[in-house]
Records
---
Amino acid sequence: MAETAEDLEDLTRTESVASSADSPESTPKQDEAQTPTARANTTKPSKPETKRNAFTELMAPKPRAPISQAPQSLASKASQVIRGVWRGALIEYIEHPERFPNQVLRVTAHTVLIKDAFPKSTIHLLLLPRSPAHYLLHPHTAFADASFLTTIRAEAAEAARLAAAELARQLGSFSASNRARDEAVGRGVPPDRLPPGRDYAREIRVGTHAHPSMAHLHVHIISRDMRSERVKHRKHYNSFNTPFFVPLADYPLAEDDVRRETGYQNANLRRELVCWRCGRTFGNRFAELKRHLEEEFVEWRAE
Amino acid sequence: MAETAEDLEDLTRTESVASSADSPESTPKQDEAQTPTARANTTKPSKPETKRNAFTELMAPKPRAPISQAPQSLASKASQVIRGVWRGALIEYIEHPERFPNQVLRVTAHTVLIKDAFPKSTIHLLLLPRSPAHYLLHPHTAFADASFLTTIRAEAAEAARLAAAELARQLGSFSASNRARDEAVGRGVPPDRLPPGRDYAREIRVGTHAHPSMAHLHVHIISRDMRSERVKHRKHYNSFNTPFFVPLADYPLAEDDVRRETGYQNANLRRELVCWRCGRTFGNRFAELKRHLEEEFVEWRAE
DNA sequence: TATTCCGATAGTGAC
DNA sequence: GTCACTATCGGAATGAG
């Protein structure tokens, strides 16, 4: 899977959507921050050699919350509850996207787009709304707000285009239906005169999980394949391949939509495994599904 | 555990109970027997470098039983059913003890005494009755025969003495109550004038399993400790440390003895784990019990 | 429905 | 209640000095 990891690295460099990050990976200030008194609330990674992400960032040593504090709003208290536990890890990307130049792909007024730290497909991005009024809401609640939904949908569409372009870059050379375009690129044909290639946008899905584990609102932008060594158990797979995955297009959900029901969604996660591509069933035999997905991947990318 | 393995090797050499084995480990005939036509019913190990035991012996490739055979007695048919499957592996020790000089400790008119191939304690022997009229019976049935029981008991007692002597040899130097004897041995005191040491016979248990998996009647002669890397799961442990283990002294069982009941014995195998020495309970936490048994072993051998 | 580690549980096949 | 192998399932901790 090293190939995949390297290719995802490339994704940060291929597009014109430069992140707003402007701080270099390492600065003298970080070394100064090693003294406990200098750390205070702005946490820094204690081991510079550790690859930085929101998890290491969030879990970095910090003093216990002081007994005497300035009065807080209810909103910031809620945020405080989340901070410092894994459920709240995404807040770091939202509040400090510039700290993660390797993960953050795009920052707009409304969202931060990052690479999922544990991608479940060849391409797996997360779109994180920045609005504090929304970002701790359950997706079903947040996307009941029509205006907010419209905003996020537009950003998600842009993210999906980016994901499709990266998928084309990574897999285009394996694709039969993309061959003419691929060869034209090889001949130096300018972009505006290239023949249409495979429609990779069709292979990108956009949606939420019915029961997110990470507290902050996030929309998955994920390629169809489910080929990743990070897919390690049934729930990983079923969370993207049953109605537990709620397409962003389906929002707002009707009040009586069955997908709101906890029991129904828990059952979805425990369903028998079914190949997303050929429909073959695998019961509980996850390892067998994994081997099968490898074969399907080869055929899928060759379409 | 290499120490244990080596010490068990020693057991074949320490006592005067020479096995009846007289054939060397390897003969030219075995190589001749490699051709399929020469194998017939007397199976040979196909890979000479593999350490030989009844399992490799029994499982070695052999031709299917020929369609046309001489008429057989019912007894030999029963034996035929067992032959060639794991449940019948012990027959090789019974019929061909001379093939296993490293496993067989003693052969008498009535029994073969072997080292268990997967010992569940520091000392773990199996006493195999040679009587074809008994050796495929369930232990509860076989030991309802008073005369047979008397014979096997006498042999088992001898086997237990052998086991105790080997335990003393392996562990005597760690034992407080054995120190005087140990030091006397060191000073060259003749055996008949040695002070009494620790009573290792008390640490040897003799009995059967209520539901044996190996088809041929076998009596376990096992040291008390249960310290062995071959103890790998709960059933291994509980089969020796619940009423699933039936002391030979308890035979014949009464008709209404609860230990005859299948449901009761299956429950015994699934019981929560309890340390045989201190009575501490471990629920289902087998790994924790294993670590605890290591500590108990050190204290037990120091008694 | 975060991951990771450890370990308990279950099914299979065995020349 | 044979073993050995593979895998599934289940709980607990989760950073760092």
Note: Confidence is low (pLDDT under 50) at residues 1-8, 12-49, 63-73 of chain B.
---
Amino acid sequence: MSYRPGVIERKWQAKWDADQLYRSKIDHSKKKFYALTMLPYPSGDLHIGHWYAMTPSDARARFMRMKGFNVLFPMGFDAFGLPAENAAIKSGIHPMARTRDNIVRMRGQLRSMGAMFDWEREMVSCEPEYYRWTEWFFIQLYKHGLAYRKKSPVDFCPNCNTTLAREQVWGDDRHCERCETPVIKKDLEQWFFKTTQYADELLRFDGIDWPQTVKTLQTNWIDRSEGASVIFKTETGRHDVEIFTTRPDTLWGATFMVFSPEHPLVDEITTPENKAAVDEYKVQAARQSDIQRGAVDKEKTGVFTGGYAFNPVNGARIPIWIADYVLMSYGTGAIMAVPAHDERDFAFARKYDLPIIPVILPEGQSEAVVGETAYIGPGVMVNSGILDGTKVNTEKGRKNPSIARVIDWLQEKGFGKESVNYRYRDWLISRQRYWGSPIPMVNCAIHGWNPVPEDQLPVTLPEDVEWKPTGESPLKLHPTWKHTTCPICGGPAERETDTMDTFMCSSWYHLRYLSPKFDKGPFDEEEYNYWMPVDTYTGGIEHATMHLLYTRFFHKALRDMGITEGHEPMTQLRNQGMVLGEDNEKMSKSRGNVIAPDVLVDKYGADAVRAYIMFFARWEMGAPWDSQGIEGAVRWVRRAWTLFTDPSAPGTASEETRRNLRRKVHQTLKRVTRDFENFDFNTIVSSLMELLNEMYKAREAGAVGSEEWEEAQEIYVKMMAPVTPHIAEELWTERFGKPYSIHTQAWPPVDEAAARDDFVEIPVQINGKVRDRVRVAAEASEEEITSAVMASEVIQKHLEGKTPKKVIVVKGKLVSLVV
RNA sequence: GCCGAAGUGGCGGAAUAGGCAGACGCGCACGACUCAAAAUCGUGUUCCCUCCGGGAAUGAGGGUUCGAUUCCCUCCUUCGGCACCA
């Protein structure tokens, strides 16, 4: 009987559905396992990349289920976002209609994968029953002081017509993460989440098993630096100036100060005679883009303000300059300049002929002199009052004795204090677009901004909007939507017309899966207590500093409000790589190298596609697609079908054949079990291919009908089940007549005794070169192995009568002779 | 510039703890079956040489070791992140 994947797959998918085989319910008698894979955006077409991300995750969830865990493996849609809205502007089709259509289509495509998704738990982020709680979370963050409104220069994508979070601006040319258009700066009042409040905690990854690369990316993104903040008094101005420095020990070498052109005190300290030059420089700096300003090799420029400050440590009167190499967005926007020991300050001092005072005497030198570059290395402090003679090393913060000493002294004198600075910023969540969750805030002329009362949630998006390519949000243009009443006084007020960043929706979707229809809160606590945290989370690494950082922040903020428990939402994280086109390039419609999974499923069946996806690359690395390569997986599935459906007559195999078969089966089971645990999906399939080849040989040798053969068949199909669920079910239930369903069977235990080798072939090296192999009992002692080696004619020939100086015997592995 | 990942046959990749490099698969070659083709099955397939034997080889060079794809050092290439961050 020939293998017809289409028929088998449709049949079992329908039956599993009807029987609710993948329905996951709380069961306190079992250990829970929450397996989560990143949810797709409903673009309308499931990409091979989705298969690559989801199939191995599904296979592993299935494996965990067979291992006895009560597994939750949900699926949903990250359904807000720009593509649907842009399509609406082009075609006039409402994003909601389009998104719902796309979801119907993609649900069908996802079902064709044969994954064990529990569809009863599906969530869709653009449905009011979901975004009601996204809004509710916004209000909780607002009430706890973690959401605030601020005017500041923000990144704006002129193509997407919206502001972006810093995390969504990528690359050297500072382009939009979605559409690759370079961003521009705009001064706007926007909503932010206080992610920086959790900066320190987000740097800790205690107790979570996440890839080092993700931890490193997040750590670099937050970029903590230790130092001190120091107060400088100004001569001309009425205010003191605070600066941040990582090198407070070099304070005695500070010979001038530099302010960012945008620094609020610039006008106050600028003297009348310098005003014109300062104003001109400010205008010029404002005109330049961040990219131009940020160019590392750009020559430093600046102008003198005419103002002076006093160095608190020695009272020195030092000039204040403005220069665009000091950024308003980092630290306090003002620095002390120590040209002798900072390359940037050195270049600036040389250009404008400012004094340079060395305060570190390099080791091995007798005199501190001004060289051709700034000196950054270790040594001893000089010209530095109380610090003179203190050792300087290259450590940061208090690990450096000179820094530790000066910080204590500054604090004692009240000049400054120990301080930590981050590059990390608060998360800008306002988007000037329609297709997102409304920000549930109302602005009243008298009472300012206030949240919409929680019993009035959700604030729903109006449906009767006009799609105009003006770049203005339809919410803003809608004639009535924004008009409402103030929750405090009942007077006329206006709604916020910006919507939330869709990363807000995805920061908590894993919680909605717990109880997607629950209407008394974002999730049912009983479900939370049983299922959370997520045990394994899988997805692409591109989200390292976006979604994965946001969702950690979100969980911690909720924890502090008493809404969630534990410190981290996802215990284990694994990243899959990317499937490239056959031309080794990123798949894209414009390149014409897109592989459509639907076509493959029609041609080969879902099982073969699943098998190939797991087989063809190391999961975390990814690889280019190979249309011919898939044939290997197709052949494997067909060969398995043929072997297990061919009613070959029972034979009479030797005991050795049967023993060898059983050994191979249990060795394979051991490997496959280990590889599932380690996410080594490619070797799972290759081990199964290898065993199948052995089983064909065993059949030739007459093993069919034996007890060992029966066991081999059963274990084999169970091992196939997570990889190729349909054919495994068909073989198990229909061919072997075993009780439905294979997917509720227990994963077979490894018989270690059966897996053990009786005999091993040990290579024998002479001076590092393999000269012969000897066959010995696996348990042979060193003496037995040695005598077997010495009995070898080949070895004797190579020894040429000499006695080895050294004999190294690694039991069961190798013998090495040194002559 | 700083940080990280990777580099193994024609290709994707394997090698668990420092112990037979190239499992498994693709492709290719030859053979069987066939009138023929496809499918299927079988055999072979890292490179080199004086080919029943021997030598070289895991980006390059060095080191540690009886033994290195694996550990250490220097360098090269590719990819990713950060970057006038005080």
Note: The CA atoms of residues 507 and 551 of chain A lie 4 Å apart.
---
Amino acid sequence: MIRTVPALKENSVKDNNDMPGHLARRFQQIAVAVFLAEVGDAGFDLTPVQYAALATIKANPGLDQVTLAGLIAYDRTTITGVIDRLVQKGLIERRASPRDRRARELEITDEGRRALRKITPAVEAAQRIMLRGLSAKEGEELMRLLRKAIAAGNELSRAPLRE
Amino acid sequence: MIRTVPALKENSVKDNNDMPGHLARRFQQIAVAVFLAEVGDAGFDLTPVQYAALATIKANPGLDQVTLAGLIAYDRTTITGVIDRLVQKGLIERRASPRDRRARELEITDEGRRALRKITPAVEAAQRIMLRGLSAKEGEELMRLLRKAIAAGNELSRAPLRE
DNA sequence: CGATATTGCTCAGTATGCTGACTATCAGTA
DNA sequence: TACTGATAGTCAGCATACTGAGCAATATCG
């Protein structure tokens, strides 16, 4: 820190804190950090998207990658790498679909099931920690407003949610 | 889409939509897409972090990279690359500080100033669009709750806000 | 003053996330 | 059946973001 720099202006055109986009990024940044810390402390090396993919594959055995991507709102090009790493870790299996030779069927392994079970408490703790500044009522309201804003903007990103 | 996949279970352990972390990522995903679309339509090729850095450099001439990183809550290792690209585009200048030879002083160029001026309406439009599902009152409430949650979690990420 | 700790910055490595392009395959239709 | 369009997946390229390490320079303290 350079001590002799002039005092910061307080009247920027628009304060960062007034920008929904900035707040969105900050909240997400904290959410990811908390997730990785909690899951790491529990002894696992899983990222948020890897967890989401694993849980969704468990709940929908045999689904293909595009469907998976739609269910968790990730781009299919991103999912390719995520799946690679989950396979690498032995948590899922990827095999050609007998019905559609373009598609790959995804299946959770026993090890994946075990990891998911052990990791869930850490994931839930992370969700609480990232809302720790809010009352229960405020946390609910934040989630309601986020869901509403997201629903209205669903089609605006390349990877909309597909149910 | 494989048509013969079994119907999706509705009773996952925890629906994605109930996870604050998932909602945070989705909202941020939409926010970035909207930002890039609006700014791109205005004829500019600037990312959200590049815009934030540019605006902050303009408001605080001569600041160093670590201070900049703290003001917009980015990791200093990320800022290095962002600054590289802003310099590359001719929007800012980076020069050695005469007071601290470790530090680099950042200054906006005339071209950077012009770009910032022309781009601001698009940035403001983007902020409105990402909240388009909410009433004005709800948008305010969402921002208040985000600010509150972020303040409580500020120190939980590697790149906390430093004012 | 000199040893030590701290700070500013960069880099290598990894993982998201995106755009755009491409291949292989499937589906619908003339 | 042959043609055309759509779809599943991958890839190259780029830009965040992070961890951890390292270098150079500054600050601190005995």
Note: The mean pLDDT of chain B is 91.
---
Amino acid sequence: MADRDDFAQWYQDLVYKTELADESPVRGCMVIRPYGYALWENMVRLLDDRIKATGHENAYFPLFIPRSFLEREAEHVEGFAPEVAWVTRAGKEELAEPLFVRPTSETVIGHMYAQWVQSYRDLPLLYNQWANVVRWEKRTRPFLRTTEFLWQEGHTVHRTEDEAQAETMLILQQVYQDFLEKELAIPVIAGLKSESEKFAGALRTYSLEAMMGDGKALQSATSHNLGQNFARSFDIKFQDSDGEVKIAWTTSWGASTRMVGGVIMVHGDTSGLRMPPRVAPIQAVIVPIWRKDEEREAVATLVAEVEGSLRAAGVRVKSDWREERPGFKYSHWELRGVPVRIEIGPRDAQNGQVVLVPRTDRSDKRTVAREAVAERVSALLAEIQQTLYDQALEFRKGRTYTANDYEEFQTLMADRDRLGFVEAWWCGDAACEAQIKAETQATIRCLPLEQPEGNGACVHCGRPSSAWAVFAKAY
RNA sequence: CGGGGUGUAGCGCAGUUGGUCAGCGCGCAUGGUUUGGGACCAUGAGGCCGCCGGUUCGAAUCCGGCCACCCCGACCA
């Protein structure tokens, strides 16, 4: 576990050792275990709150979709066909029309929307669904890329292009960016995807890019302005107030269990996970310490009291009464990333105090009076949440570079110990982008929303460029 | 789908000139001593050595075929 030099191995070991997930009998699929699922549930709750707060409603659409639907949007087919799983038989019967397992639901939802939208008065239509999807990827990694994964996908319909664009940005920034930064303590860069990296069938794709502990980028959420592409293919039309029949504008946006991988890779350290308190399945763990029976009794009384007051204060707390030595329990919970450890031993029972130890700094032990525990733990959780964010941002800043020429660019991308984000001008030519990828493995993660003034020379070809891009190796 | 690798106890591995080669560490069970940073002792449970076939008196070990998984690429949230 201490070996983070082999980051991929460190990551995988951590996922399994901490019991977040386990391998399944089916290649590329994983079992999300209770500890991992509890984390996901907390993420779902906080993200769902934001989705609803911005006016969206949840619905559910079917897992199976008729083959013909996939073929309706040309770019969409091309993009997803290679990784689609098919159902061709039910029992002994061959199906008249094969069904595919949704890799995403634009098609079936578009089909339904066409029936539900008649008038401009029906708009906007703002629905979201929480679902599983299947993409038959060649190469998988737990949470980061699994054959089946869990996510939410929002699908909206609008009257005007401006409205659709506003929705796309609202989701990107007010929903996803806010969620990632405030709840997961993961700083992200919001930006526009290049043409070659955009969603199959979209007009424009925006994403949030986060830097992992090895300097690679993880696309953590995406928001697509689909323009009228899907509306045209699926016949989503409405009669406007001027009496004219118009084609609608749609968006879609998604965030998945991949974000769990982000939490691991952004915050994890050589001792294991570091759960952001806001989503930690267990925010504080009480480790009772005793030798003799009478000590245990005195300790138990204080543990019960502290546990009660923490629970009353809304803290997710657990007492670890297992017959193990304290040191064993410390490392056990550190590995699992519990933000705060509370040690309660005979000395503490005697003095009416407890010892708080933040996961972010084990040497920072704090002795707290029993009456003040709830307040102090709550404050400490907030402090840890902030510390994790600050450290992640600091790390990203330290590994973000500006490349003035291609040689410098290549040097940066080749140095494993300094690997990170490289910002540079880009001419906008897909050929240039492809060559950079072929030569350095780095891709354009996004064109950040915040663009510098003026323009410069493309880092690859030197032609005049007005686009400022973030390049990185990506997951 | 190309290149490389590995299949032996729940996990990690050793054993592969054919015959005390069914073993080690961790974990697990029971009992005891321990307990403020990953304890120790004792006693146990647990494996058709990936699968199928062949060679042989005898195969984890040699031969042939198959399967699975992992790593590195191309594809991707």
Note: The longest strand of chain A covers residues 148-158.
